[in-house]
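Chapter summary example.
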Amino acid sequence: MTLNETIARIRAGHLMVRDAAEWDELSANLARAYQDNDDEGIEQLRPPFLQSWRTVTRYVLRDTFDAAGINVAEPSHPWGIAILSANGASCEPVLGHADGEQVTSDGRVDLLTFEDTMANYARCLGGLLPD
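The structure predicted for these 131 residues follows.
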């Protein structure tokens, strides 16, 4: 399976679960909870937010990754989706802009939009698969 086919299937798999606006709303709500120092909101929103991305990748897209020869492992980064590996290389798409915990000095969480997350996936997979 080519890079473009794999990316298209990853996008479709995530959009089967939620549309882009819903993914973005989840990100915005979690970022707002961090900005407001709402510990209860963070506790309620962060686990399902991360689990949603990780579940789609690990289970909904299992056949896609198998067909592309990509192994999927648990993420190591706190905002990571999964560790993807193929052809002796690996990468880990994350849900935020910066390394580390993604919380800025003013308390914001710098989470990606759905489109930016898909672009991050594409960059990650570019090092694993042929065009």
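To summarize the output: Residues 50 and 79 are 7 Å apart (CA to CA).
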